[in-house]
Specification:
270 residues, mainly alpha, 69% helix
Amino acid sequence: MPSPRRILLLLASIVGAALVGWVAAASMAPETRARSTRQAEDLQVELLMQQLQNQEEVSEAKRGLLLERLVTLERLQEAEVVLQPLLSGRSTPRELTLFKADLQRRNGQPEAARRSLQHLLRLHPNDLEVLQLLVLLDQKQGRQRQVTAELTARFKGLEPGQRLEIGLLLADLLRQSGSDQTAMRLYGQLATENKTDARPLLALALLRQEQGNSEAVQTLLKQARERRNANGRIDPLIDVVAAQLGLSAARSTGSEPSSATASLEGSDRP
């Protein structure tokens, strides 16, 4: 059976967050070599598909490789067929069910995808990756208000220190729906509840950058640099965000006074 790590890579590629290694390597080769490599891969895919159609024995390793390549080629309906036998065991790994749900979503089966995700949530309450996919599904179906309410209820049902990731997901959902002020308050609350984690401050800095407030961005980045993780180190994500924002932030002439510090005070739950 494909390893959980490989399934997670496949899931990442199907939602556009990453590409599996063999595709990335091929894209860096010369065009003629890439074309011949693609032709060889296509031929291998067709041979394996023919073996399955003829009900010939195909090892789990080859089935996993076929699944990987079908996803990369955007042949998602065939990928769902290839995946199905891997789900027939008594105990299906969480990663496979999550992958199945995303294939169902991409193949125009939103209700089937929702059932798969709800099943996973019963087994793994508040699982972040499951919730992320459920949010994506609900957004596609125009259920922004409902999913925001459901995620808010989940957030409020958890204790401070246990809800950072769900809180960040909720705040991003609020930001996408245009509720910037509510998102800012939530980022501030998360920063207060998690005093060693820089992510809420970085998310707030990104939002303030969108608003053109370069002074607040600089203040928030400075506050983020003062935080240390469990190993006593600065989060390397800070430099990544600073590099992305630095030039544009320096050129911004936003006249709005900095409210970075104020946003961390008096924040209420959403």
